[in-house]
Amino acid sequence: MRALALFSGGLDSALAIRVVQEQGIEVIALNFVSHFFGGKNEKAENMAKQLGIKLEYVDFKAIHTEIVKNPPSGRGKNINPCIDCHALMFKVAAGLLEKYDAQFLISGEVLGQRPMSQNYNALGRVQKLAEVDDIIVRPLSAKCLPETKPEKEGWIDRAQLLDIQGRSRKRQMAMMDEFGLVEYPSPGGGCLLTDPNYSNRLKLIEKDGFLDEEHSFLFHLAKVGRMFRMDEGKYLFVGRENEDNLKLSEQKAHASLYIVGAGTPGPAILGFGEMTDEDRKFAMELFSRYSKSKGKEEIQLLLDGVITKVEAVDLEALAEKIGKYQYTGQKIK
Q1: Which of 240, 323, 325, 238 is nearest to 286 (CA)?
Q2: Any idea what the CATH number is for the domain that residue 160 is in?
Q3: How many distinct structural domains can be found in the chain?
Q4: pLDDT digits (tens, 9 = 90+) for 266-308
Q5: Rounded distance, CA 143 to CA 167, Å?
Q6: Residue limits of the Thil AANH domain (predicted)?
Q7: Which residue from 327, 225, 319, 213 is spatially nearest to 270, judged by alpha carbons?
Q8: How far, in Å, CA of 26 to CA of 18, rounded?
Q9: Domain assignment present for 333
Q10: How far is the C-alpha of 11 from the C-alpha of 17, rounded, in Å?
């Protein structure tokens, strides 16, 4: 008997796998990779090693973007379509059962842990949207939920499953200690779509008509540093630290403007959209302002690969422009 598990590498998904393993069932972990969560990471791989399981990465970026754009069940507090996202993962996982010669699916979902997306009705809707044949087992809350096909068929013993519910994770943490599973990530988090600041940046991109796979590089730029919007569909992304600068450089193929220092340390700046001369001047002044010179002296920079001189900046006038154009995470109406 073999099961496929939705696996983030965190507390609940790890414990769900171990509970099933205790019944002698082999588990293969599927880590789903979108633009907003998942992907190769040391913590997930370390936990997979502790569990002694095979870890497979499943790239579903394109179809997940469509769910974020048009979620049948609507969004949560931010831009997160949790119910439809979970359903999509189960649907994709079900399509992999034959490939891995597996019989059913498991996840670390806990009844009542997330009041909106993991209540009794929501879990039922996830199964309906996933279009699977009653083969989803949630080992941590199984005794609080209807009996599933794997339980009815005797593939897994319901008596050895758990009855956890609610938001506290004390019981899970105690069980992880009992199983000797250590160095697991702190509970919660993981999906950028639930982060209010990032979510509001993404809503701005949606408002401008770019919430699609073709413009998915904007999803990643929105994770980086400072964001300025001069006009509809026209942005500047300004690094705050070296890691930001490296991430901006990775996306420069999509840039209509790209600035780095030429002798004076400062942020990388990437522009998207049709830039006017005034926009370019603003970008160069931003570099000067956030560079080591603080805008107080003449410097040189590389603008699209060309050495360009920037005079000392009128900091008061620039501050007004920054206040006008910088997007600070406010809600989009």
Answers
A1: 238
A2: 3.40.50.620
A3: 2
A4: 999 999 999 999 999 999 999 999 999 999 999 999 999 999 9
A5: 17
A6: 2-140
A7: 225
A8: 10
A9: no
A10: 10
